[in-house]
Design brief:
Length: about 120
């Protein structure tokens, strides 16, 4: 049983070019500047997660940035095609951190729903 749990923790439940969702954590690809390394967020640390259409990214709601921070509290993982490809945008608020984490997703609804399910189950343990 321990081997099965360890295997599940290593295999992503969802993956695209922007993020990987595991059973217990989110990995945002190409997040940190300047080397585009990943950011790992444990589900137990997430306070809020939301999905936005790129057209709804106002200057203060999510900002207008291909990588980094605009005039909002969101640090965006790199996506050179953020405004051309019209991917859904996912924004995560982490407990104790004043900077929300933002990234694009090919299937934003699946990412958000998968994370919310795991957040709910981790809080009920």
């Amino acid at each position: 049983a321990a081997h099965t749990a360890a295997f599940r923790a290593m295999e992503p439940l969802y993956e695209d070019q922007f993020a990987r969702v595991f059973d217990d954590r989110l990995e945002i690809k190409r997040y940190f500047f300047p080397f585009a390394t990943k950011k790992t967020v444990m589900f137990s640390d997430i306070e809020e997660i939301q999905m936005m259409d790129v057209n709804d990214l106002g200057i203060f709601s999510g900002g207008s940035k291909l990588w980094g921070m605009a005039l909002s509290d969101v640090w965006w993982a790199i996506d050179w095609g953020r405004y051309r490809k019209k991917h859904m945008q996912v924004v995560v608020k982490v407990a104790g951190d004043g900077v929300r984490k933002g990234f694009a997703s090919l299937d934003g609804a699946k990412v958000v729903n998968t994370i919310r399910e795991r957040m709910d189950s981790s809080k009920s343990r």
